[in-house]
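Input record (one chain):
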Amino acid sequence: MPVDDSTLLIPKQPNAGATAVFRARIGWQGPNFKAPASLPLLQAAELAGQPLTGSCRNGTCRDCMCQLASGKVVYRIEWPGLSAEEKQAGSILPCVAYPASDVVLLLPS
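The corresponding structure, as predicted from the sequence alone:
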């Protein structure tokens, strides 16, 4: 079975790559914002004035679940609240997903 490397687990300790700043876009033509590798996407969106839905901020409520249409994210927790099938289908939890590249997020309708 191929490994889905778009959502990798990384150590809890930030590394030198955590200083990188990527661009995140909401939808293919929607607003974009700075997404530092050191912040979860949900927090980066809020700081940029682009709030996303979310309540728990720890990956358990799944309110923020959306699709990663493009790019890569990493998690600093072992179980980010998604099934293997959901991860393989491109679902992410922005409250605990850290950008590892520029990303495009597709929000539920």
